[in-house]
Amino acid sequence: MLTLWRPFNELDRIHRQFDNLFRGAGSDFEGASYTPAVEINEDEDKVIVRADLPGVKQEDVEVKVEGNVLYLSGKRESVKEEKSEGRYYSERCSGSFFRSFRLGPKVSPEGIQAKLKDGVLTVELPKKEEARPKQIPVTAI
Description:
Layout: H1 7-22, E1 38-42, E2 46-52, E3 61-66, E4 69-76, E5 95-102, E6 113-117, E7 120-126
Antiparallel strand pairs: 1-2, 2-7, 3-4, 4-5, 6-7
């Protein structure tokens, strides 16, 4: 049986393993970057992108569209604690993040909305009028 080898999938897996290694036990790795988890959904009228950004302030998030690419970026400040006793392990990370997504031909760059609530960034990208489903009336003859 043949299996399709995708080298970039392997590189992505290795990159995640290195990220986890440097975020390990008790590290105070300043300036580390992280990749927020993202979910993308589509309905009849829009594409919805949600990114988990716990602990990120509104003023530290940037959402922009250039050409046909959506960019999400920002930073999460580290929390400094003076007491060092009692901490055995921490997976909390701080630093900057950056994600980009190529927009399909259905998406209109006009009217995009971004909201941050309870640590979740929601970006709504309206579809172009011609990409939306049309209801065709049926007439009796």
